[in-house]
TrEMBL record:
<dbReference type="InterPro" id="IPR010737">
    <property type="entry name" value="4-carb_acid_sugar_kinase_N"/>
</dbReference>
<comment type="similarity">
    <text>Belongs to the four-carbon acid sugar kinase family.</text>
</comment>
<keyword id="KW-0808">Transferase</keyword>
<keyword id="KW-0067">ATP-binding</keyword>
<keyword id="KW-0547">Nucleotide-binding</keyword>
<keyword id="KW-0119">Carbohydrate metabolism</keyword>
<dbReference type="InterPro" id="IPR050007">
    <property type="entry name" value="OtnK"/>
</dbReference>
<dbReference type="Pfam" id="PF17042">
    <property type="entry name" value="NBD_C"/>
</dbReference>
<dbReference type="InterPro" id="IPR042213">
    <property type="entry name" value="NBD_C_sf"/>
</dbReference>
<dbReference type="Pfam" id="PF07005">
    <property type="entry name" value="SBD_N"/>
</dbReference>
<dbReference type="GO" id="GO:0005524">
    <property type="term" value="F:ATP binding"/>
</dbReference>
<feature type="domain" description="Four-carbon acid sugar kinase nucleotide binding">
    <location>
        <begin position="259"/>
        <end position="417"/>
    </location>
</feature>
<keyword id="KW-0418">Kinase</keyword>
<dbReference type="InterPro" id="IPR031475">
    <property type="entry name" value="NBD_C"/>
</dbReference>
<dbReference type="InterPro" id="IPR037051">
    <property type="entry name" value="4-carb_acid_sugar_kinase_N_sf"/>
</dbReference>
<feature type="domain" description="Four-carbon acid sugar kinase N-terminal">
    <location>
        <begin position="6"/>
        <end position="219"/>
    </location>
</feature>
<protein>
    <recommendedName>
        <fullName>3-oxo-tetronate kinase</fullName>
        <ecNumber>2.7.1.217</ecNumber>
    </recommendedName>
</protein>
Length: 425
């Protein structure tokens, strides 16, 4: 019997929108939920072909990540999903303790799955796997910028070795060209250098109940397992406020403005910030300042109001464009406290912008995206137009609706913020 509905679990918010974008490309109607929905939230999922539950489980304790993921699985089963996808970053962000291995093992055990594929490759974004080793734009993962990731530094490119440290099941790797699976392995890292390789991997997994990987393989797997295809959401499927957000009409005096919130420390985001502030007003947060996060947020919002009094052009607020300032904040507060202060500031700023009528936000960074969505109390979004590979505009299902571009720090070209504005709903 062909599968009809796909249930997905993603370990961070921007990774979830990345996954949604790939499924929309493949003609599926997708709704993304932020966290496991409460029964009283009444999110209408009836017309969705796929539902993605976005968690913030990538860098938390493994046992907590497992519990959240199993809760998400049970919710998706109650919705009617009969095939399941576990999405993590295409750079396999994790530590020796997890969380990729423990979560995958727990989902497999709950579903009665013995053999499990791991397919992180995303060739379109320069992530490829060869002989079980992960490359980023032709450079070994361990020699890329990911080696200095503040939470999950990736210092080993051998994904079989990385995965084996996280699971008691035997791990191996598979070449889609040889089409021979390792005889003793039940946790299999799949090679993929091109999209054709991903299609082959999806075909090999067509009878699997559960697949894990980056977002790129999801659209091919949806085809291979026969997930229904309803096409893009149309205006008739949206409420009035959603149509306003997508059609760009009937906005208030300030809701036409757009603000970029950049909290990522990645090289890609820093380049994007530098490019954008050549032509647009920019405010750089000083997280090392002794002032409270609330006071820093208030000062930031006052700056926004001053800028709006002069023009309606988009604004940029960044916390990590200057590496020296980031280093100073970590030296003063410690790594985790500095990160917590930064996200607290962004939460207050996002809430203040919404109170001032802003209905379009571009957010760079997975943690920052999660913070913003949480601060705005958005339970779910419909997936709209793609800005760059893996990054779509999304629109909240509530009222008033808010349009968001939630970008992983490493995604997008130097002019990503401009691209987002040009495709803005």
């Amino acid at each position: 019997m062909m599968s009809r509905r796909l249930g997905c679990i993603a370990d961070d918010y921007t990774g979830a929108t990345d996954l949604c974008s790939m499924l929309v490309r493949a003609g599926r109607r997708v709704i993304q939920c932020f966290g496991v929905p409460d029964p009283d939230q009444r999110i209408d999922l009836q017309d969705a072909d796929a539902v993605v539950v976005a968690l913030k489980s990538r860098s938390i304790a493994a046992d907590k990540a497992v519990k959240q993921s199993l809760d998400a699985l049970h919710f998706l089963q109650s919705w009617g999903a009969d095939r399941f996808f576990y999405k993590y970053c295409s750079t396999f962000d994790s530590t020796n303790q997890g969380n990729i291995g423990p979560v995958a093992d727990a989902l497999a055990a709950e579903l009665g799955v013995e053999q499990l594929f791991f397919c992180p490759a995303f060739p379109e974004n320069g992530r490829t796997v060869h002989c079980g080793h992960l490359f980023v734009n032709g450079v070994l993962l361990s020699e890329s910028g990911m080696r200095d990731h503040p939470l999950n530094p990736m210092t080993d490119s051998n994904l079989v070795r990385v995965l084996q440290a996280q699971t008691a099941c035997p791990a191996g790797w598979l070449s889609t060209h040889a089409r021979r699976e390792p005889a003793s392995a039940s946790r299999i890292v799949v090679d993929a250098i091109t999209d054709d390789d991903l299609q082959s991997a999806a075909s090999l997994a067509s009878e699997h109940l559960l697949l894990t990987g980056g977002s790129a393989i999801a659209r091919y797997w949806a085809e291979a397992i026969g997930i229904r295809r309803s096409g893009r959401w149309d205006a008739g499927a949206m409420n009035a406020s959603d149509r306003v957000a997508f059609n760009g009409t009937d906005r208030g005096a300030t809701s036409d403005n757009c603000v970029v919130l950049a909290g990522s420390c990645s090289d890609a985001t820093r380049i994007q910030v530098a490019e954008f502030e050549k032509t647009h007003p920019a405010w750089h947060l000083n997280v090392a300042d002794q002032a409270s996060p609330d006071l820093i947020a208030e000062e930031t919002l006052r700056w926004c109001e001053e800028q709006w009094s002069q023009s309606n052009q988009p604004l940029l607020i960044s916390s990590a464009a200057n590496p020296e300032v980031v280093a100073a904040a970590r030296a003063r507060w410690g790594e985790w406290e500095a990160a917590s202060r930064t996200e607290s500031i962004f939460a207050s700023v996002a809430s203040g912008l919404a109170e001032r009528g802003i209905r379009r936000l571009i957010v760079a960074g997975g943690e920052t995206s999660g913070t913003v969505v949480g601060a705005l109390k958005i339970p779910a979004v419909r997936i709209g137009y793609e800005i760059a590979p893996g990054v779509p505009w999304v629109t909240s299902t509530g009222s008033p609706s808010i349009s968001l571009a939630l970008k992983s720090g490493n995604f997008g070209g130097p002019r990503f913020f401009f691209d987002a504005l040009e495709t803005s709903p």
